[in-house]
Amino acid sequence: MHAFHEGRRRGLAAVALVLVATLAGCGGEKPAGQGAGAAAGKPAGAGVVIGVSLLTRTHPFYQDLEAGLREAAAARGYELNVQAGEFDVAKQKDQVENFIVRKVNAIIVCPCDSKSIGTSVAAANQAGIPVFTADIAVLAEGPKIVCHVASDNVAGGRLAAQALRQALGGRGKVAIIDHPEVESVIQRVRGFEEEVAREPGLDVVAKLSGHGTKDMAFRTAEDVLQAHPDLDGIFGINDDSALGALAAVEKANRQGRVTIVGFDAVPEARAAIQAGKIYADVVQQPKMIGRRTVEAIGDYMAGKPVPPVVLIPCELFTRSDAGTP
């Protein structure tokens, strides 16, 4: 009996040693892998893929916004798949669908059409992929956006109206070169019109779409100038609109008679402001918009609270900021 019990004790001890070794190995595998990654200097976000569909990559504003996205993503080890709809919502929908098929970890959209893109956002929601918007919001009812990061466009529109009011001495007829398919523009125009309404001497006599492009804005401004020979000012909702309006004003030989205010302060517009051809521009902070969007994604993935809207302040850029030639 003693030999039997002694053998049994030795057998159990051997089994226990095997179990301890096995458990130690299993318990150590996962942390060891994490530790190896950390030791190799891999950022915590390694393996996270974010799909990005911009409105366009041709405009300096979106080039800066993309730079902000990439800067913040690189700091966290996120991989970005950046594409652009180039003002074509059907193309943008295909891009979002591709992100869904690839099962990216998050999607950032700058909508080409704030309402039409809603079905694609809803599809991402259905697939369990969080969606964030930058610069332009989604206006469709139903789809869920985790966080929208953008300029305070209403306040920016007010700044544009204040600049025109100052330039015109509080009196005059003004036109808006619009792009109403885009939410950010809707906000700018709203702020502009609210501010103009506070000034009895200012009157908005025309509001026509230039579709956010220089060529279309040029043709739209030509129509406005022909219909309103006594026009005093133009608000271009972005710099392509303002520069297109400037070309129309110059063609009509009405320089110095029609004051133009734009939005974005891209290099070409800054040069026109410096030359006295455009009165002022509203300045945004696109790199900050990009950085804050990626930061919102990081907070969301970490389980931290994320505000539904983050607004970045705008400022006014005038000839005094540009410096006289």
Descriptors:
325 residues; alpha/beta; Rossmann fold; 2 domains; 6-stranded mixed beta sheet; 11 helices; 19% strand; elongated; disordered N terminus
> What form results from the Cα inertia axes?
elongated
Structural class: alpha/beta
CATH topology of the largest domain: Rossmann fold
Mean pLDDT: 88
Using only CA atoms, what is the Rg? Answer: 28 Å
Architecture (CATH level 2) name of the largest domain: 3-Layer(aba) Sandwich
Percent strand equals 15-25%
The span between the termini is 108 Å
CATH homologous superfamily of the largest domain? Response regulator
Helix content: 40-55%
Unreliable stretches (pLDDT < 50, length at least 5) are: 1-40
Protein model, in words:
Residues 1-40 have low confidence and may be disordered. Helices cover 50% and strands 19% of the residues. It has 325 residues and is of the alpha/beta class. The chain folds into 2 domains: 49-150 and 286-312, Response regulator (Rossmann fold); 153-284 and 318-322, Response regulator (Rossmann fold), CATH 3.40.50.2300. The longest helix has 38 residues, at 2-39. It contains 11 helices and 12 strands. Strands 2-1-3-4-5-11 form a 6-stranded parallel beta sheet, with helices on both faces.
Draw up the topology in text.
Elements (H helix, E strand, L loop, with lengths): L1 H38 L9 E6 L5 H17 L2 E6 L4 H13 L4 E4 L8 H9 L4 E4 L12 E5 L1 H16 L3 E7 L4 H15 L4 E8 L4 H14 L5 E4 L2 H13 L7 E5 L3 H8 L5 E4 L2 H16 L7 E4 L2 E4 H4 L3
Parallel strand pairs: 1-2, 1-3, 3-4, 4-5, 5-11, 6-7, 6-8, 8-9, 9-10
Antiparallel strand pairs: 10-12
Helix pairs in contact: 2-10, 3-4, 5-6, 7-8
